[in-house]
Automatic annotation (TrEMBL), chain A:
CDD domains: CDC_Septin (cd01850). Residues 33-299 form the Septin-type G domain. This is Septin. Pfam families: Septin (PF00735). GO terms for molecular function: GTP binding. It comes from Oncorhynchus tshawytscha (Chinook salmon). Belongs to the TRAFAC class TrmE-Era-EngA-EngB-Septin-like GTPase superfamily. Septin GTPase family.
From TrEMBL, chain B:
The lineage of its organism: Eukaryota, Metazoa, Chordata, Craniata, Vertebrata. Residues 53-325 form the Septin-type G domain. This is Septin-type G domain-containing protein. Residues 1-29 are annotated as: Disordered. One of its GO terms (biological process) is cell division.
């Protein structure tokens, strides 16, 4: 008989047991494995996404300046290995390319949504595999989405609202006001209020820094009230006093990135990395991913009603998908094979054609050659004939000459005799 | 597993400049130091999260009655965690069949909360015919895996799936001093494939040190000869550091333990022990018995690892087997005709 007592009774310990080392053991294991963090930056071309990332992580990531003429919005993901003291972080930064540049921006958000969904799908596939290795899996799901708002000073653009609305149930959105050094303090205050009220009235759920843990609830609550963060990024350093600080130098002054009076950069870094990175990862996994998974499985027709059939159903799905995939693969292989055969035939005919041409040319040359030869032969013959005739004539002439000489000689002789 | 010493470069290998200042808790760091990003603050964040969530640990104790299992549990966790201490039975009876009885406790130490479940198996090895006595235990362990699997493949699933899987099975070997009995070999050989087994020599105060060492060596050889992999399993060592530490442990198992709930005055200190006419055995004295080693292994150093091996290896093996099971039975018609519709949908999408 099995009996499991569901009600755990609280018990007090009479001495030191030692399981207080458990958090340490857990953290140790995670440190060995390393951490993964993936940030998606959405914003118009030239709004300062790459610069902000460089500033945030104090590194010079490889950046390409994008053109403004991209026909469609693309996403470019790059992964980096960073290390700070004994913590290794696999950071992936995904940037939108060409966002907001098209004349018709109706499809802009779709590529971003698709990218996010693809990462969820990858994870889901791994989770559904029979033989899986989740602890080795490189988690590519987006943990934080920084949405860069253009510093117009007025309100959000309709593209911003539409995009954020489509993304708020899929990813943790942290809106930031980019290039905040173009807005004055009072304008900024009004701008922030306007943005937040627009978000609220449109029902956009941005990421809220968690306030349930007393250690961080105070600072998180305060920061929630400062959203969106007005940021300035810079990879250049300027000398202030006797220190080199990251700043942007203008003729009228220097905007210091890490000066909290100048912009909210420090607050962003604090919230994004130092205080809430783990919560961002957890929300992604337990809320956004679960929602995706639930929707996807329901879409495929599964329900939770029958517990008996569940492993079977997932197994059957897996098999069906695999079957489909293999069939697809086979089909493509066949296509490729056909194409290959086709190409070979074509090449063959080409070569045959070339061969024939060559042969033809050869024949022609041969003919010409033999023609030349026969012509030459003829010439030679006629020449020979001429030579023959000439020699005959020569011989005859010589003979004649000889005869006449003889005759002359004879005559002379005769003459002499006669004398 | 990622080797701690090596970092695999992906697209580009950049490391932040070295020498960050240690982070102040939650507050901003020194404003002038711009070389510090704050990535290592995630360790603190993780610790905080773990503290808030609390931990779960499920230990099963297996062995004949009278081997001091309950006492040892109480000694390990310094409180009355065993079933006997909780459920008062009028008389100590051996059940006709093996029963599996769990009891859970919420314990807390220095802010770390843990839900400890002790799973007792009264009746094991106590009957005249003990054939197949491992079966109900195996079934229980697999049932916990099944329960977790069912929860995991739910569409609408809980944020944190309650973990009732047996993390560790402590097997009590009677201190005969000779060798393992067929029952021991049978049980450990079967169960070591599905759960982490930690064998202990019970009531070790009946063995002298030489007898103990000989017994341990014999046991180790017999385990090896029978292909029984007890915790820590050699094949799950993650890297050379791990292997070094675990090799030392493997040289010492099974731990020869003595348990006690009583404190006695020894050299001016109050210590847990067993008082006899010829002396007092101090439970936590490593010269007397190996209880402290067991406690350190189980609780202070390897607890997380034990749980990890259960979830990432034993459970996964069960899952693979279970998911493949239905594959080999084409005739197994699921009671739900929705599934045939799903197949249709899948193939035609």
């Amino acid at each position: 008989a099995n009996s499991v007592d569901k009600n755990a009774r609280p018990l007090s310990l009479s001495g030191h047991v030692g399981f207080d080392s458990l958090p340490h053991q857990l953290v140790n294991k995670s440190t060995c494995q390393g951490f993964c963090f993936n940030i998606l930056c959405i914003g118009e071309t030239g709004i300062g996404k790459s610069t902000l990332m460089d500033t945030l992580f104090n590194t010079n990531f490889e950046n390409f300046e994008s053109s403004h003429f991209e026909p469609k919005v693309k996403l470019r993901a790059q992964t980096y290995d960073l290390q700070e003291s004994n913590v290794r972080l696999k950071l992936t930064i995904v940037n939108t390319v060409g966002f907001g540049d098209q004349m018709n921006k109706q499809e802009s958000y779709q590529h971003v949504v698709d990218y996010i969904d693809t990462q969820f799908e990858s994870y889901l596939q791994e989770e559904l595999k029979i033989k899986r290795s989740l602890h080795n899996y490189h988690d590519s799901r987006i943990h934080a989405c920084l949405y860069f708002i253009a510093p117009s000073g007025h309100s959000l653009k309709s593209l911003d609202l539409v995009t954020m609305k489509k993304l708020d149930s899929k990813v943790n959105i942290i809106p930031v006001i980019a290039k905040a050094d173009t807005i004055s303090k009072s304008e900024l205050h009004k701008f922030k209020i306007k943005i937040m009220s627009e978000l609220v009235s449109n029902g956009v759920q941005i990421y809220q820094f968690p306030t349930d843990d007393e250690t961080v609830s105070k600072i998180n609550t305060a920061m929630n009230g400062i959203l969106p963060f007005a940021v300035v990024g810079s990879s250049e350093e300027v000398k202030i006093g006797n220190k080199m600080v990251k700043a942007r130098q203008y003729p009228w002054g220097v905007v210091q990135v890490e000066n909290e009076n100048h912009c909210d950069f420090v607050k962003l870094r604090e919230m994004l990395i130092c205080v809430n990175m783990e919560d961002l990862r957890e929300q992604t996994h337990t809320r956004h991913y679960e929602l995706y998974r639930r929707c996807k499985l329901e879409e495929m027709g599964f329900t939770d009603t029958n517990p008996e059939s569940k492993p079977v159903s997932l197994q059957e799905t897996y098999e069906a998908k695999r079957h489909e995939f293999l069939g697809d693969l086979q089909r493509r292989e066949e296509e490729m094979r056909q194409m290959f055969v086709q190409r070979v035939k074509e090449k063959e005919t080409e070569l045959k054609e070339a061969e024939r041409e060559l042969q033809g040319k050869f024949e022609q040359l041969k003919r010409l050659h033999s023609e030349e030869k026969s012509k030459l032969d003829e010439k030679r013959r006629s020449l020979e004939d001429e030579i023959n005739t000439f020699s005959k004539k020569k011989a005859a002439a010589e003979l004649l000459q000889g005869q006449s000489f003889n005759t002359n000689a004879n005559l002379k002789k005769d003459k002499d005799r006669k004398k | 597993h990622v080797d701690t010493a090596e970092v695999n470069p992906s697209h580009s290998n950049m490391s932040a400049p070295p020498h960050p200042q240690p982070p102040a808790k939650g507050a901003s760091h020194a404003a002038g130091d711009f070389s510090y990003v704050g990535i290592d603050a995630i360790l603190e964040q993780m610790r905080r999260k773990a503290m808030k969530q609390g931990f779960e640990l499920n230990i099963m104790i297996v062995g004949q009655s009278g081997l001091g299992k309950s006492t040892l549990m109480n000694t390990l966790f310094k409180s009355k965690v065993s079933r006997k201490s909780v459920v008062s039975t009028p008389e100590e009876r051996i059940p006709k069949t093996i029963e599996i009885k769990s009891i859970s406790h919420d314990i807390e130490e220095k802010g770390v909360r843990m839900k400890l479940t002790v799973i007792d198996t009264p009746g094991f090895g106590d009957h005249i015919n003990n054939e197949n006595c491992w079966q109900p235990i195996m079934k229980f362990i697999n049932d916990q895996y099944e329960q977790y699997l069912q929860e995991e493949i739910n569409i609408d699933r809980k944020k944190r799936i309650p973990d009732s899987r047996v993390h560790c099975c402590m097997y009590f070997i009677p201190p005969t001093g000779h060798c393992l009995r067929p029952l021991d070999v049978e049980f450990m050989s079967r169960l070591s494939k599905v759960v982490n087994i930690v064998p202990v020599i019970a009531k070790a105060d009946t063995l002298t040190l030489e007898e103990r060492d000989f017994f341990k060596q014999t046991i180790r050889e017999e385990l090896r000869a029978n292909g029984i992999d007890v915790y820590p399993q050699k094949e799950f060592d993650e890297d050379s550091d791990d292997r070094m530490i675990n090799d030392k442990i493997r040289e010492m198992i099974p731990f020869a333990v003595v348990g006690s709930n009583q404190e006695y005055q020894v050299n001016g200190k109050r210590l847990l022990g067993r008082k006899t006419k010829w002396g007092t055995i101090e439970v936590e004295n490593i010269a007397h018995c190996e209880f402290a080693h067991l406690r350190d292994l189980l609780i202070r150093t390897h607890m997380q690892n034990i749980k990890d091996i259960t979830s990432s290896i034993h459970y996964e093996v069960y899952r693979v087997r279970r998911l493949n099971e239905t594959n080999g039975q084409p005739n197994a018609q699921p009671p739900n005709t929705l599934d045939s519709n799903i197949k249709y949908i899948m193939i035609h999408t």
